[in-house]
Write a structure and sequence with these properties.
- The chain is of the alpha/beta class.
- The chain has 10 helices and 8 strands.
- The chain has an 8-stranded mixed β-sheet with strand order 1-2-4-3-5-6-7-8, with helices on both faces.
- Helix 1 links the parallel strand 3 and strand 4 (55-60).
- Helix 4 (137-152) packs antiparallel against helix 7 and helix 5 packs across helix 6.
- The model has no long low-confidence stretch (mean pLDDT 94).
């Protein structure tokens, strides 16, 4: 974890030892960072050191990612993430937090706001689809065939194309490639497909708290870029910014744009 002030901790839930890093702040406000599928806590290195000292910061490796390895025979399921996150709240003594999530982490943050709104202060969602949105007929068809199509790709090709979709910057592509190649093809695909189980259409739903929605202008994954602006326009609690010249991992591709937007949303001045 970038920054010497972070302390490394762990807890166990459902036979998985989950690793997290904590930085004590000067106040009682808490920010929890939730990374995307098949990467790890290091994706937030461009952000954590720019957050004002008044905030307590928590960054984790979700189960099956990074140092939070699954036991032999276990499979990653998105459904495990909510109880894992509730346990993280418990062990850290969190009563309410701002959740900053990218891709899968943004989907998890949405689920927390949907099912446990009393635990969420605000949301920052980066490069993620709308959990409660509706899919077109074609999108449903593409989703139904996504898994076999992914398995048809040679592993090296799948890693290369996925890394290119994540970012424009070569250093970010190298990081995600390192994460992807630390797992096997089956685990990689199963994690991606498991995230789709968070989709549950609810046309009437609006965020119960302030939300900042960010999307890279070059994000080609799923329907994320297509729905981002209409999503924000339909929700009075949501503010949207397109991040120019950034891919799916916009916080890593363009931290010089993303970080000031997060600081402004949090209502704090940027650190010198």
């Amino acid at each position: 974890m970038s920054g010497a002030s972070f302390e490394h901790h762990r807890f166990t839930r459902a036979d998985c030892e989950i690793h997290y890093w904590f930085r004590a702040g000067m106040g009682d406000k808490v920010i929890v960072f939730l990374h995307g599928a098949n990467v790890d806590h290091r994706m937030w290195d461009p952000q954590v050191d720019t957050i004002a000292d008044e905030f307590n910061l928590v960054v984790w490796d979700a189960r099956g990612h990074g140092q939070s390895a699954l036991s032999s025979g276990q499979k990653f399921t998105f459904a495990d993430l909510i109880p894992d996150l509730l346990k993280l709240y418990e062990v850290c003594g969190i009563t309410k937090a701002t959740l900053i999530g990218q891709s899968m982490g943004g989907n998890l943050a949405q689920e927390m706001a949907y099912y446990h709104p009393d635990l969420v202060e605000s949301l920052v969602l980066i490069g993620c689809t709308k959990n409660t949105g509706s899919l077109t007929r074609m999108e449903k068809i593409l989703l139904s065939v996504a898994k076999p199509l992914l398995y048809c790709h040679p592993w090296k090709t799948l890693v290369k194309q996925s890394a290119e979709a994540c970012a424009n910057r070569n250093d970010v592509r190298r990081y995600v490639t390192d994460c992807f190649t630390s797992m096997d093809k089956e685990t990689f695909i199963e994690a991606i497909m498991s995230v789709t189980t968070c989709l549950h259409e609810d046309a009437a739903y609006r965020f119960p708290c302030p939300a900042l929605l960010l999307c890279g202008s070059d994000d080609t994954t799923g329907n994320i870029r297509k729905i981002a602006q209409p999503w924000a326009e339909s929700d009075p609690n949501c503010t949207f910014h397109m991040i120019e010249n950034a891919g799916h991992n916009a916080n890593q591709d363009a931290p010089e744009i993303v970080n000031p937007l997060i600081q402004q949303f949090l209502g704090v001045p940027p650190l010198p």
